[in-house]
Amino acid sequence: MSINRRTVERGALAAASGLLAGFAALAAAELTASLVRPQAGPVTVIGGAAIDRTPAALKDFAIRTFGENDKLVLQLGILATVGLLAALLGMFSLRHRRTGAAGVLAFGALGAAAALSRPDAAGAGDVLPSLVGGVTGALVLYLLVGKVGVPAARPAGATGTAQATAAGTAVGASAGGTAGGAADGGAAPAGWNRRGFLLAAGATALLSTGAGALGRALTGRRGAGAAASRSAVRLPAPASPAAPIPAGAALRTPGISSFTTPNKDFYRVDTALVVPKVDAGTWRLRIHGKGVSRPRSYSFAELLQRPLIERDITLTCVSNEVGGPYAGSARWLGVRLSDLLREAGVTPPSRGGRADQLIARSVDAMTLGTPVEDVMDGRDAMLALGMNGEPLPFEHGFPVRMVVPGLYGYVSACKWIRDIELTTFDAYDPYWVKRGWARRAPIKTQARIDTPKPFARTPAGPVTVAGVAWAQHRGIERVEVRVDDGPWQEADLAAQATTDTWRQWSFPWQTTPGGHTLTVRATDGTGEVQTEARTRTIPDGASGRHSVFVTAN
Question: So what's the pLDDT on residue 3?
């Protein structure tokens, strides 16, 4: 084997050693996190820190590009970066074995620092997963690279005693076992132990896989109590049931969004890399702060025993582009939020109340700010306990979340809520406001074409254009469609359930051969026509009119 081939081979084995060390570190960290707190795992805490420090425009780009897979993309990116750095550290460790292992320890310390910096940090125990992972990875890298070894260099022309000395040094190093790399001050091994390396690498892979699997199993068991508490919930009949959905509110046009969005299809946009699993039996909500004369605390059981309201309400994410998918309608069951605030002695600012902002905090320390006036102006703002006839899914906030009609989710729809603090807009900026989003964000009037899809090919002749329009808390009065640069033509509206839900519409179109642009606009219940001015989602929601290009054959 040539010297070059030998060098390449050792480099590849060292890179593999680094990858195995990284795998072992992550597996050990995941196992430790399952015993401490799943949210304290290094991928989760580093990912959370990355999300917190990402500019709002880049966050918006990620949601727009990757949709609800943005968190998966982030986690895969972190894992890919860890793998690359681990491989580079492995190759570096051929000559700097101790320093390479120290580098792995440094990454563990970085994860520990990230864990302590998280707003939902539970204490010093959160550093353990990253530290245990770092120590494990460092030991594995040191061991495996020692099996690869670095051949001792022999100066050109060395003879006699010099050669014997070099050979003796090499033999001594081999006999010494795990000496450090030459650059770290230790004698380098003369060659590498193929059988020893393969055994060590195989054992590392096997043990790491087992540790990772055990960690996942233990994490699943930790959430079993929360899952059992959800399964045990029996939602009572509402004291104020939702009105029946009017006949004709749900069109049967193929391709149109259903009037009620099934839970499994309801959009999810949040920053939680690990969905919180909260046990309803131990959950409590605290109401306190400025203008609260009677602080209150409620259990889940106490909320269930109160008179509940049931309402059909459409939610919309502020990250929804014009024509985007982040809107959905559900039948919510919950406690009227204004009742709870009044019991705590809160009065709205219009009646002399001291607080104009309600800060909702989730179990993962997310903070959302909602105008107190909007919550107490008579709209059906609630703490929701049920969604479409069942307890809230974990992904959508079990056991309790906020729902406020007419406001974008980032200022109203706190999931996994645990705390409500009354304050002022001048005194406190919640999470998204600190990152450039507006303090107040009423939902803008929007209409969307669901069918035909962009760039669809349709047969020449009659085609049904259909979709949904929304202007929560104002309602939809009219929807119009324009073909190319022609006049606006009024669409047929489905029956409107309430002003807090979207409204379906359809338009019979007699196509002619060729390419055509279809554009839609809505008019809300106040008479305001949807603007054609295009704006980005930042800072308070996108505006503009949705259009699609189709070809009629």
Answer: 60
Rounded Cα distance between 181 and 153, Å, is: 12
Q: How far is CA 459 from CA 455, 467, 506, 509, 516, in A?
A: 13, 19, 18, 12, 13
| Average of per-residue pLDDT values in the chain | 90
Q: How many CA atoms lie within 13 A of 161 on its CB side?
A: 0
Q: Which residue has the higher pLDDT, 171 or 514?
A: 514
Parallel/antiparallel/unpaired status of strands 457-458 and 382-387? unpaired
| Position 142 pLDDT exceeds 50 | yes
Task: Say what the pLDDT of residue 191 is.
Answer: 53
Which neighbouring-strand residues pair with 309? 240, 334
Concatenated DSSP letters for 69-133?
Answer: GHHHHHHHHHHHHHHHHHHHHHHHTTT-HHHHHHHHHHHHHHHHHHHHHSTT--SGGGGHHHHHH
Alpha helices per DSSP H over 251-336: 300-304
Q: Where are the beta strands (DSSP E) in 372-451?
A: 382-387, 390-391, 401-403, 417-423, 446-451
Nearest partner of 73 among 273, 270, 320, 321, judged by Cα: 273
Residue 186: predicted pLDDT: 39
Q: What pLDDT score was predicted for residue 8?
A: 84
If you search the block for the tokens 């049904």, which residue do you land on? 464
Residue-wise DSSP of 20-32: HHHHHHHHHHHHH
Q: Tell me the per-residue pLDDT of 270-293, one tens digit each, with 9 for 90 and over.
A: 999 999 999 999 999 999 999 999
Q: CA 58 to CA 386: how far, in whole Å?
A: 33
CA 62 to centroid of chain Cα atoms = 11
Distance separating alpha carbons of residues 26 and 287, to the nearest angstrom: 39
Cross-sheet strand order for the sheet of 489-490 = 457-458, 547-552, 514-524, 476-483, 489-490
Owner of token pair 């900026």: 429
Task: Using only the alpha carbons of the chain, give its radius of gyration.
Answer: 30
Q: What is the distance between the alpha carbons of residues 553 and 461, in angstroms, rounded to a whole number?
A: 9
- Residue/partner pairs of 484-489 with CB below 8 Å, 24 or more apart: 484/516, 484/517, 488/521
For 220-229, what is the mean pLDDT? 91
480-485 long-range contacts, Cβ below 8 Å, gap at least 24?
Answer: 480/520, 480/521, 480/522, 480/523, 481/507, 481/509, 481/518, 481/519, 481/520, 482/518, 482/519, 482/520, 482/521, 483/509, 483/516, 483/517, 483/518, 484/516, 484/517
Bond from prior residue into 241 cis (ω within 30 degrees of 0)? no
Contact assessment for residue 300 and residue 416, using Cβ atoms and an 8 Å cutoff: no
How many alpha carbons fall within 13 Å on the CB side of residue 371?
15
Extended beta strands in 156-295, E state: 284-289
Reference 374, options 400, 345, 344, 341; nearest CA is 341
Note the pLDDT of residue 122.
87
